Amino acid sequence: MLGQALGLSTMNKPEEMRVDKWLFAVRLFKTRSQAADACHNGKVKLNDAPAKAAKHTRMGDTICVRQGPMTRTLKVVGLTERRVGAKLVSDFAKDETPEAEREKLRLAKRDSGGNRSSSKGRPSKRERRLIDQFTNLDQA
Predict the structure, then answer these.
(1) What stretch of H or E contains 56?
(2) Is CATH 3.10.290.10 the classification given to domain 15-97?
(3) Of the residues 20, 31, 39, 65, which has the maximum number of CB atoms within 10 A of its CB?
(4) CB of 21 within 8 A of CB of 32?
(5) Backbone phi, psi, residue 3, to 5°
């Protein structure tokens, strides 16, 4: 009763909600402020138009989010006021990202990972052991 007086109804699902709230709720961003910053920086498009954080989204809308080397395309299937668990994201968002965009991410991960450059600061523990092992061979 008190919840209804305050306008907090658990039975009513929202018909529309802010883009930044939805992006946060479906776990595309760790915080809502990161979602809002992405909107302000032009990394989010709602139905192929740049979206500000306060722009309202409805069911059936398409949201494109630029994340690193790829652009994710999501269709709004449901709206929720609260952040959902990772297993429930599919109830609120349908991933329609093209395979070409996924390939961009795979290539970027492959190119960046693996070999460590010598100009990356301090040696790792493994590299330090190899250095010690090499220098001890000279003394023996």
Answers:
(1) strand 56-58
(2) yes
(3) 20
(4) yes
(5) -60, -40
